[in-house]
Design a protein that fits this description.
Length: 134
């Protein structure tokens, strides 16, 4: 159970980083769009990730009330898009600062590499434990 929860947390973190990368990439793509405001994801917290990965209470969840409704996809936990901090604005009303967005992309890459390294270390620990028992 502990291993599954840990892998679940790492997977959720990886999905959150992927969603944040998408939002920041949209900011870069709209760097010349008049009136565009940069967006970013609300930072996740460990407690909210644990709650999101906990099993829901009995009877809770989405209900399909019409056969034309699409089945519910599970979004990454704690992904909320908010408006980013506006530091300066161009005469056209655009508030995207490319150097700031590149800094965010570098931070996302660093966090992604850390998450991947944790995956690898945890997998190696399991492999070591399995070899010792064989």
């Amino acid at each position: 159970m502990y291993g599954t929860s840990f892998f679940g947390l790492l997977t959720a973190r990886e999905r959150w980083l992927g969603a944040r990368y998408t939002v920041v990439a949209e900011n870069v793509a709209n760097a010349d769009t008049p009136g565009y405001r940069p967006r970013d994801l609300v930072p996740s917290s460990f407690g909210r990730l644990v709650e999101a990965l906990s099993p829901p209470p009995a009877g809770a969840g989405l209900v399909r009330t019409d056969p034309r409704h699409l089945p519910a996809a599970s979004p990454p936990p704690d992904v909320r898009v908010g408006e980013g901090e506006v530091l300066e604005t161009t005469p056209s009303g655009n508030a995207v600062i490319l150097s700031e967005e590149v800094r965010k992309l570098a931070a996302i890459e660093k966090d992604y590499r850390l998450t991947l390294q944790l995956f690898r270390k945890y997998k190696a620990m399991f492999e070591t434990a399995l070899r010792l028992e064989a």
